[in-house]
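Entry 14. Structure prediction run on the chain below.
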Amino acid sequence: MKELMLTNKAIARGAWEAGVAVLSAYPGTPSTEIAESFAVMDGVYAEWAPNEKVAVEVAIGAAVGGARAMACMKHVGLNVAADPLFTVAYTGVNAGLVIVVADDPGMHSSQNEQDSRYYAKSAHIPMLEPSNASEAKEFVKLAYELSEQFDTPVLLRETTRVAHSHGVVDLCDRDEREIKPYEKAIGKYVMMPANAIKRHVVVEKRDNELASYVCSLPINRAEYTSENEIGIVCSGVVYEYVKEALPNANVFKVGTVHPVPVPAILEFSKKVNGLYVVEELEPFIEETLKAAGIDCKGKEIFSRQGEISVPILLEKLVGAKVETATPASVPARPPVMCAGCPHRGVFYVLNKLKLTVNGDIGCYTLGAVPPLAAVDTCVCMGASVGMAHGFKKATKGASKNVAVIGDSTFLHSGVTGLINAVYNRSGITLLILDNSTTGMTGHQQHPATGKDLQGNPAPIVLLDELVKACGVKDLQIVDAYDVKAVEQAVKSAIASDQVSVIIAQRPCALLDKSKKPTAVVTNCKSCGLCMRLGCPAISMGENGVEIDPNQCNGCGVCVKVCPFHAIEI
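Output returned:
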């Protein structure tokens, strides 16, 4: 039986067919759909963890406990999970353990363009990289075989173009597996220094065994088309581009990007007319081959930035210019907060008060976009709180800066920053924008929404009680749509010399699909004040402001900011 399937769903299907019993993940584009797809499959347990570190720790525990397990995240999430990742390479596993990481060349939805292949090398963990949905499913099953054969976690890397592409996938039955008995092994699983020193020797031995073994795997293969043609080494989605752009090229398809099958590629290089390594982001494979003495070309031709494409391949290797299909007349469409977004009024107030805003990762990052232009910094999830603390310490408390974070991100990694701020008496002001969901990645649940990954009722973490438990005395809860209340709360908070927290509550405007009364303009004075909200439903027409009833959801923020009462619901 075959099915046209999203690659992320194919990965989930591969996990199900491989007999995976436990999956833990944190949502992050482009990896989110793996957990969502796996959660509805029969006979499995799946969860959203508060962050990626916890997700990997849960998966490690399940694997040591005897069940095949998986953790999933995007590339920056692997940074959060790095602590347990590096050490589980030493402990090894009981049942198979696979960690899926989705890189984002081109930064379609990310704050950096890091290359996760270096994590595999640095952590001494094998990494597989499929090129399409069908391969993704099969690579997952192979990853579990390798994990158990070599007593190691295995990384599976995908990129945005692979994760969000569709392909025909062969469906197989599930390999129902008994839970493997756990046997006490202190020297293997307890990584105190004396034990870790011994396990490091095991890791090095495993590296050498894997380096030899991967050359025999069919996922690492040479594809010869004709004599006297160039040879191209590639992996992942780049393989698909190479096959389309250069059908006459000889290709070595790399399935294990770590360890790179160097001996097999060496033999391939002897049979081609010049060797080229085509890979997105860093010269990972290229550097490996050159270190082994294999002559090849790579990043002197191709950029380390962004994605490879068929036109780029034709231009760089053939000299052919390919016209892009996008007409120059298409207007730019920058990202913008949705009509009715509860974050809009908050950022309007912060901009109005001319405050320095330490921002965070989520929909509210769009508060940096004109006309709001309120966000000053954004580094990583949870960083807003620590940065606001550092900013306040650097200015000896004189700065008028605030931190802004979402409810999901606060639980992910913001709460520790708040504890630090209280403990070290910085007097920061933190705004938690509680929209009752993990918004930017597609409305996933989290520990404060009252539902689990499957949508079943779950215990609720009460944000106000958690904030108080961190030692915060100055706590205010406001309606995010009530602009005046938000402004009063912010003014009060920044005047305080102690840590103050404002929880601005309103569910994401997209959660409620019901039709609501909309705003209408009655007697516009064309002052343009409502235009500063940046609401996509509001535009300036010939006779003043116009509000599109098809986009407006009646949040009323524009009503509250209009000084002439020219807008009403």
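The two ends are 54 Å apart (CA to CA).
Filed with the rest of this week's runs.
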